[in-house]
Design a protein that fits this description.
Elements: H1 15-36, H2 42-49, H3 53-81, H4 83-102, H5 107-135, H6 139-168, H7 175-178, H8 180-194, H9 209-230, H10 236-259, H11 273-303, H12 308-332, H13 338-356, H14 365-393, H15 399-435, H16 443-451, H17 453-456, H18 462-504, H19 510-514
Helix pairs in contact: 1-5, 1-6, 1-8, 3-4, 3-5, 3-9, 3-15, 4-5, 4-8, 5-6, 5-15, 6-12, 6-14, 9-10, 9-15, 11-12, 11-14, 11-15, 11-18, 12-14, 13-14, 13-18, 14-15, 15-18
Length: 525
């Protein structure tokens, strides 16, 4: 049941709630930070732990695997046992797993610790967003709070490689995990004092363990298969088989949820038109951002020739862009409908991607960084307002389930973007290098160069490096063009969907028609 610390619907949030939001923001930033913190640390820990290439892949990806797999379960569990309770349990587990990760003595130990980190993160992510819906009942305040939460989420993800690279200049690779300890200590102390407790009073009885098992059996193989497809050495038949297995279990999972009186995931949320529109839109937006950002990051390091630390700093423009876009969203809706702000933002992202199609091999570093920032800036309102629509459209007792659906769509979208756009760019690169005349280079070096740009730069052959940079830039151009086309299609779908929503509401009054997100539009104020 909801206790006395939760604000009634008519009450505006005060200082206590905003300080609580800052605590939740720190936790959110740290959870996102761990997604990319190992990008630059991987060579160091691999050398220290003697990790194989397969073990490196699992060390990097197991966190995302477990995070995606447990989001739905943990979002529903928080609605049942209490969102604050689950958040604090997750913070304690995250602290322990961070210490275990930092002091791992073998690849297997680090993989297990990272898996525990992912599960702990899954308990925290939907809980933070669901608690925001309880703490901020005023539409305008909730819109601002969700925008700040979204900024923390995506800035944390973007700043992982930046801060990780800086820390590696002074400390050993394990130090990147120990950052979590003081932050989680603050959450464990301040959480009970500042955060309300909330649970769904209708969620009684035990959680359906078979549904939990089916959700894991569906999500984990799909995420694994998608990620393996993105790897140049990935086993395509195994990856496709894993995806098919996941889809079969997903079908069984959905059938079971529709038959249960109290399902693990309340699929009735998908009956709401706004959620049906925003959920795939956020998936597509996160996919295009992740896929294009991966290639621009490699461009900065491998084509522009910047060091890991410098590359991390140039990548910060993406995090800054999405933070600005997320924070501007509640300001822009004071004069525009949320739907208009979302469409304008996605249009800006498409323009940024079109600029990237013109990138060359020299003199384009500032242009690439600026274009990437524009892409992130435009996607920011989609995430901020889209999350507000998801959470605001759900009843308070189902906010945790809505939050987990929102974040699961983002994780799936990122995985799809990395796999599909990554495979496309890699295919363009290999095609261009296959056409190049490499007969003047040692066969082993030529073979490596045809696979990745990293293999072309290993021996420092200027002519080979120039060919590889040209081929990689062509891959970036193609990826940007395809991503731009996907966003244009998304814009058209959003326009059509919102127009259809207006037609359904033709007989409604104007105020009822205007309210469409967690941010109250200007027309109703």
């Amino acid at each position: 049941m909801q206790n006395a610390t939760s604000a009634p619907p008519s009450q505006r949030a005060g200082r206590r709630e905003w300080i609580g939001l800052a605590v939740l923001g720190l936790a959110t930033l740290l959870v996102a930070f761990d997604i990319g913190v190992l990008f630059l640390a991987l060579p160091y820990l691999s050398a220290d732990l003697s990790a194989t290439s397969s073990q490196q892949l699992w060390i990097t990806n197991i966190y995302l695997f477990m995070l995606a797999s447990f989001l739905i379960t943990m979002g529903t569990l928080g609605d049942r046992i209490g969102r604050r309770r689950l958040l604090l349990i997750g913070a304690g587990a995250f602290t322990v797993a961070s210490v275990l990760s930092a002091y791992s003595t073998s690849p297997e130990m680090l993989i297990a610790a990272r898996a525990l980190l992912g599960i702990a993160a899954a308990t925290m992510s939907p809980s933070t967003l669901a608690l925001i819906s309880n703490m901020f009942r005023d539409d305008r305040q909730r819109g601002v709070a969700i925008s700040m939460w979204a900024s923390c989420m995506f800035v944390g993800s973007a700043m992982g490689p930046v801060i990780g690279g800086i820390m590696l200049d002074y400390w050993w690779w394990g130090s990147v995990f120990l950052m979590a300890v003081p932050v989680m200590a603050v959450l464990l102390v301040a959480g009970p004092l500042l955060l309300p407790e909330y649970r769904n009073p209708e969620a009684v009885g035990r959680i359906d363990l078979l549904s939990v098992a089916l959700s894991l059996a569906a999500i984990l193989p799909i995420i694994y298969g998608i990620t393996d497809l993105a790897a140049s050495e990935g086993d395509v038949p195994v990856a496709v088989g894993a995806i098919v297995v996941g889809l079969v279990f997903g079908y069984v999972f959905i059938r079971r949820q529709l038959q249960l009186p109290k399902p693990l995931v309340d699929l009735r949320l998908l009956r709401q038109p706004k959620i049906r529109v925003i959920l795939p839109a956020m998936l597509i937006g996160s996919g295009t951002l992740a896929g294009s950002s991966m290639f621009t990051a490699q461009y900065i390091q491998s084509v522009a020739g910047r060091s890991p630390g410098q590359s991390g700093l140039w990548m910060a423009f993406s995090g800054l862009g999405i933070a600005v876009g997320s924070m501007l969203a509640p300001v822009l809706v004071r004069g525009l409908r949320p739907r208009s702000v979302i469409i304008l933002g996605v249009t800006g992202s498409a323009i940024g991607l079109l600029v990237l199609t013109q990138a060359g091999t020299s003199g384009w570093l500032i242009g690439v960084a600026a274009s990437t920032a524009l892409v992130a800036l435009g996607i920011g309102p989609l995430f901020a307002l889209g999350t507000g629509i998801m959470v605001g459209s759900a009843p308070p007792e189902r906010a945790g389930a809505a939050a987990s659906l929102s974040e699961t769509s983002n994780v799936f979208g990122s995985s799809l973007g990395l796999a599909l756009l990554g495979s496309l760019g890699a295919a363009v690169y290999r095609g261009k290098m296959a056409e190049a005349d490499l007969s003047g280079y040692p066969p082993e070096l030529a073979s490596k160069a045809r696979q990745t740009i990293g293999g072309a730069t290993v021996d420092g052959q200027p002519g080979l490096i120039a060919l590889a940079r040209h081929a990689f830039t062509n891959g970036l151009n193609v990826v940007a063009a395809v991503a731009a086309a996907v966003l244009v299609a998304l814009i058209l779908l959003l326009i059509a969907a919102f127009r259809g929503d207006d037609a359904e509401k033709a007989g409604a009054t104007a105020p009822a028609d205007e309210t469409e997100s967690g941010v109250q539009p200007a027309a109703t104020r």
